[in-house]
Amino acid sequence: MRKTILKFGAISAGVFAVFISAMIPFEGCMGGIQGMIFGYSTMLLSFLTIYFGVRSYRQNTGEGFISFGRALSVALLIMLIGCIGYVVSWEVINHFFLPNFADTYSAKMVEQMKASGAPQANIDSQIQMMKLYKENIFFNMAMTFAEPLPVGLLVSLLSAIILRKKKVAAE
What's the rounded Cα separation, in Å, for the pair 67 and 49? Predict the structure, then answer.
């Protein structure tokens, strides 16, 4: 189980690293809906490894069979490695290649909030959160980890449901 999880988790982390790195030259022009489309597409592509990892485990270790619980545990562990790869990739890029990202992003968010007529209390809260994001590496990492997590959980659950296959008891 360990070999399959590490292999497919590393592939997932590698896909994240490649696509996050590819984003660097487009950082200034990829905001709003384009950034969301690119980000979620990258997450789905990276998390496709979950499906293939569970399928590989079922075929090679489970002799063609896997319970929902085992499939889900394999899927979640692959997802965890992929998410860790996402966080590590982002932290490296954020600190070495895009050191002003937090300031730029915060300014855009505040501008959008003011344009939409958001209350000053909400704007101040956003500013405080971005300040914390910039100054506290652990908060930064937790927020970054939370980005791909919902997509990874959904792909893990769907993969476990689709790939589960119980042995039929011999009569």
Answer: 19
What length is written for the chain? 171
Q: Where are the alpha helices (H) located in the chain, listed in sequence order?
A: 2-23, 32-60, 68-96, 101-115, 120-135, 137-146, 149-163
H/E stretch holding 31: none
CA 14 – CA 35 distance, rounded (Å): 20
CA distance 55 to 50: 8
pTM: 0.85
Contacts of 50 (CB under 8 A, 6+ apart): 8, 12, 75, 78, 79, 82, 152, 155, 156, 159
Nearest to 148, CA basis, from 97, 80, 93, 96: 80
Q: Quick check: 44 and 158 in contact, CB under 8 A?
A: no
Query: What per-residue string of b and e applies to 121-151 under the rule 16 or more CB within 10 Å gives b?
Result: eebeebeeebeebbeeeeebeeebeebbeeb
> What token pair was written down for 88?
């590590």
Q: What is the mean pLDDT of each run of 10 residues along the chain (171 residues)?
A: 94 94 72 78 94 95 91 97 95 86 77 82 83 85 93 96 81 51
